[in-house]
Design goal:
343 residues, alpha/beta, 37% helix, globular, binds nicotinamide-adenine-dinucleotide, binds guanosine-5'-diphosphate-beta-L-galactose
Length: 343
């Protein structure tokens, strides 16, 4: 993160994966006034720290967004109803309802004169016709138009990106928008139906290893391609983009594309096991191929997410392994409370 210490920062979605990781990083950097907000009851937050202001609020409601935004200097809006393909394919209305969160947060930011606003968009805004090939298409920012976003979730993100732009152009609110490409790492959702491929595959390999049933079920043909961004790169990229003069929505993703079969290869290698694969062609698959074109972020920031998948996946696998075993022992597992600051 940039060296300057900032104060009065709101993180929405702080009970989730990326929001919780951002709060952890801001604390580590000495930020004194962090307001962490999430709809979940506190005991379900993935990471929670007693030395920040924690609020359990439904940000679909305008008055709660005002409570969240009041007297603050920066808002990172990471709250959304989201998940991997298994979730977004079956919950389109719920995903689109996240439009209330961003709209009300923008209104609240304006009302209380919050100078800076970050919105977490997604690679799901890109035109589906450009992602039909398994040979991974590197998506440039302009490929969001003409618009044919991922049904439900992607359209909400595209609309909310535009709301950010209009609030900037019409009302002078400084808004920054990053299009995250599939983020993974410790503290991410790894079971329950919202997990994305990296965590799901690690969990399935661990399950197979511990149960002795050496089989794995993979959604789709396994030839789908994706790039996966490690959480540390995501946190650093958000900070750089928030502090930059980049006006248009920009890719924040790794450009190391792999097939899902290669992702399974890596998880097996880390787990030291080989599994018999079966392919569920009826499961949610999403687009055939997707990669992040990082020309623009390189041009603006001379930086791009670069943690090799092998390295990030190993850290994720080991973390899920520990969580898995804690859960098997009947321990709460996933929640981290008031962890000491490690610098
Ligand atoms: P997450 O599900 O772990 O966290 C999102 C959090 O938002 C959850 O804790 C949830 O309880 C909270 N939330 C949902 N509705 C709310 C409401 N009405 N009021 C308050 N809080 C609410 O997901 P994440 O991976 O941390 O994603 C963070 C942001 O990044 C989201 O906007 C997501 O769409 C975006 N994004 C994530 C990825 C990824 O791969 N993780 C990719 C693209 C975009
Ligand atoms: O869920 P996801 O990571 O989302 O799936 C990637 C690919 O992995 C899909 O083709 C899916 O079918 C395949 N896959 C194989 N096995 C499994 O066990 C599994 N579980 C899961 N989940 N997938 C499996 C995501 C969105 C996010 C976010 C990012 C942005 O789409 O779901 O909400 O916005 O994109 O990049 P993915 O990459 O399709």
């Amino acid at each position: 993160m940039a060296e300057k210490t900032r104060d009065l920062i709101v993180v929405t979605g702080a009970g989730g994966f990326i929001g919780g990781s951002l709060v952890a990083e801001l604390r580590k950097r000495g930020c004194k006034s962090i307001r962490a907000v999430d709809i979940k009851p506190f005991e379900q937050w993935y990471q929670r720290f007693d030395d920040v202001e924690n609020l359990s609020l439904d940000l679909n409601l305008k008055e709660n967004c005002e409570t969240a935004a009041k007297d603050m200097q920066e808002i990172y809006n990471l709250a959304a109803n989201m998940g991997g393909m298994g979730f977004i394919e079956h919950n389109k209305a719920l995903c689109m309802l996240s439009v209330l969160i961003n709209t009300h947060m923008l209104q609240a930011a304006l009302k209380y004169g919050v100078p800076r606003y970050f919105f977490s968009s997604s690679a799901c805004v890109y035109n589906g016709d450009k992602q039909k090939t398994f040979e991974p298409p590197s998506l440039k920012e302009e490929d969001a138009y003409p618009a044919l976003a991922e049904d439900g979730y992607g359209w909400e993100k595209l609309f909310s990106e535009r709301m950010c732009r209009h609030y900037r152009e019409d009302y002078g609110l400084t808004t920054r928008v990053a299009r995250f490409h599939n983020v993974y790492g410790p503290w991410g959702t790894w079971y329950g139906g919202r997990e994305k491929a990296p965590a799901a595959i690690c969990r399935k390999v661990i399950e197979a290893k511990l149960s002795g049933k050496h089989e794995i079920s993979i959604w789709g043909s396994g030839t789908q391609t994706r790039s996966f961004m490690f959480i540390d790169d995501c946190i650093k990229g958000m900070d750089l983009i928030m502090r930059s003069n980049i006006l248009e929505p920009i890719n924040l993703g790794s450009s190391e594309a792999v097939t899902i079969n290669q992702l399974v290869d890596l998880a097996e290698e880390i787990g030291g096991i080989k599994l018999k694969r079966s392919y569920d062609l009826t499961a949610p698959k999403g687009v055939n191929g997707r990669n992040s074109d990082n020309t623009l972020i390189q041009k603006y920031l001379q930086w791009e997410p670069s943690t090799p998948l092998r390295i990030g996946l190993e850290r994720t696998y080991r973390w899920i392994y520990d969580q898995y075993q804690a859960r098997e022992r009947g321990e709460a597992g996933v929640v981290r409370e008031s962890a000491p600051i490690v610098s």
